[in-house]
Design brief:
Elements (H helix, E strand, L loop, with lengths): L2 E9 L5 H9 L17 E6 L3 E7 L10 H15 L3 E6 L7 H11 L5 E5 L10 H9 L6 E4 L8 H11 L17 H16 L9 E11 L2 E10 L2 H8 L4 H18 L2 E10 L7 H6 L8
Parallel strand pairs: 1-3, 1-4, 4-5, 5-6, 8-9
Antiparallel strand pairs: 2-3, 7-8
Helix pairs in contact: 6-8
This protein binds guanosine-5'-triphosphate (GTP) and magnesium ion (MG).
Guanosine-5'-triphosphate binds next to helix 1.
Length: about 300
């Protein structure tokens, strides 16, 4: 019996959802960083095996309250994506302390009937002796269909996750060709790579207010891609930080992004980056939409 369906990955910001998804499909598609709210859109990826086809949906970290229009969008993405799930993967930190954020998620999950697999991630960061205590605490939170302890970063125990999902997927056809890995196109992937490099290079309050727009994407030849992109920020002072002394910060972001985009496209890449200010864009519904975060598309 061939199985197929959607496995939605949810959890609080920064718990390792995108890292896990990348590991499960064996390819880096979703961007990751040590900053909360790295993922902003629902990212679909596909894993095809002999037993079935799992369509993963990575979601933005679940937050309790939105501070702006972008935050409202992020909450919408997670909520709506749960509705599409055949199986829900709930990722958490390896701690026996269960905070308000996770309690809220548990309440949401109690209201629905889909199978929920709890994944306790980042097991590499704790003393193994603590594992039983953590498991005991989480078992009381919800009647989980399964609980799996993993390290997404190290790839520890991630095969278990695939088995657990396949066990709970309904019988179904192979929806996508074997070679399909994601629904994201090259432009979107390139924009995300640039955003990732900016998130990783910048500190403090700047990263949260960044968006990236691809202004032009041209496959000049079989082995050359020319891309122009703008990093949008919220304030003039942020623009200065992103450009850096003598352009050093922008150069650092550009070099790192170019390398990854070259790997992705298998071509040489010309990457030209610009920095633009769009004052407080995250508070402006129209701006939020125009930068790729459109509630209507959900
Ligand atoms: N030590 C350790 N770090 C991990 C593990 N999994 C993820 N991380 C790190 O945790 C941070 C967040 O990872 P992401 O995958 O971006 O987390 P996320 O849940 O997708 O975050 P949002 O998209 O912001 O909700 C990154 O710095 C990862 O390298 C793990 O198993 N062990
Ligand atoms: Mg993420």
């Amino acid at each position: 019996m061939y199985k197929s369906g959607y496995a939605v990955i949810i959890g609080r910001p920064n718990v390792g959802k995108s890292t896990l998804m990348n590991h499960l499909i064996g390819q880096k598609i979703a961007i990751t960083s040590n900053r909360p709210q790295t993922t902003r859109n629902r990212i679909e990826t596909v894993l095809t095996t002999e037993e079935g086809q799992i369509i993963f949906l990575d979601t933005p970290g679940m937050i309790r309250k939105a501070d702006n229009k972008l935050g409202e969008y992020l909450i919408d993405v997670s909520d709506k994506t749960i509705g599409d799930a055949d199986v829900i993967l709930w990722l958490v930190e390896p701690s026996s302390y269960i905070g308000h954020g996770d309690r809220d998620i548990a309440e949401k999950l109690k209201k629905q009937k889909k199978p929920v697999i709890l994944i306790i991630n980042k097991i590499d960061t704790i003393d193994k002796k603590k594992a039983p205590e953590i498991l005991e605490a989480w078992e009381k939170v919800l009647a989980f269909d399964d609980i799996i302890v993993v390290s997404a970063l190290r790839g520890l125990n991630v095969e278990e996750v695939i088995r657990a999902i396949l066990k709970r997927l309904p019988e179904g056809p192979q929806y996508y060709d074997e070679e399909v890995v994601t629904d994201q196109n090259m432009r979107q992937l390139a924009a995300e790579i640039i955003r990732e490099k900016a998130l990783r290079a910048l500190n403090e309050e700047v990263p949260h207010g960044i968006a990236v727009q691809i202004d032009s994407y041209k496959e000049r030849s079989e082995d050359l891609t020319a891309i122009e992109a703008s990093i949008i920020c919220e304030r003039d002072s942020h623009k200065g930080i992103i450009i850096g002394k003598g352009g050093s910060m922008l150069k650092k972001i550009g070099t790192a992004a170019r390398r990854d985009i070259e790997e992705m496209t298998g071509t040489k890449v010309f990457l030209k980056l610009f920095v633009k200010v769009r004052k407080n864009w995250r508070d402006n519904e129209k701006d939020v939409r125009s930068f790729g975060y459109d509630r209507k598309s959900l």
